[in-house]
């Protein structure tokens, strides 16, 4: 069992109630980090109880990180403590055709995946750059490389994040004590597809999705090694390579076969 670090190492993990975020928080606590875990659901309190078994200080916050108020609540919950690691993992998915989606639903995807992430990063990163020390992990996706028919807004939001983090990494390259790592999973066995209303799709019912524990470990190891980005799993890496050479129209048609409602195989 890890004990609280005498150096007061502190990590903030968003989207930590389930899935990849839960596993990232578990690894951080096991590695001796005090953690602030945040999610937009009350389940974060139960998750925090699990993290406390590792002996570090765990603070849980329920907040909507699609809003500036939610991000400000996160920042206030740090009580001014230096953030050594930020895992900006909170995200939201959305299936079905764009014309069938409500404005509220696609706005929630954009506000969570893009606006909330950027606002949080812009609030936390300057202090890291100023002291030339800190680590930032942002969860992007291989989906950002693929025009996502029947997931158009989600894939577009991840394309933004994948591109944004690549650009930001260049902007801060002179702060050599600061690392920004982009984690790019493929399909992961989490509640994502249920929450995105994609349980009747081929990708949603695929039994070969990677486990969130494996994806989190890939991301954490890359973060600790100071890598710029990491595709989680060889199949995901292959998808990323293929996406750079295959025409977008072909990729969109391939994605349609996976994500169109009713595409689930019997």
UniProtKB/TrEMBL annotation:
Keyword Oxidoreductase carried by entry: yes
List, alphabetically, the CDD domains matched: SDR_c (cd05233)
Family annotation (InterPro entries): NAD(P)-bd_dom_sf, Sc_DH/Rdtase_CS, SDR_fam
Q: Which SUPFAM superfamilies match?
A: NAD(P)-binding Rossmann-fold domains
Coiled-coil residues: none
Family stated for the protein in its record: Belongs to the short-chain dehydrogenases/reductases (SDR) family.
Name under which the protein is recorded:
Short-subunit dehydrogenase
State the organism named in the record.
Answer: Sphingomonas aerolata
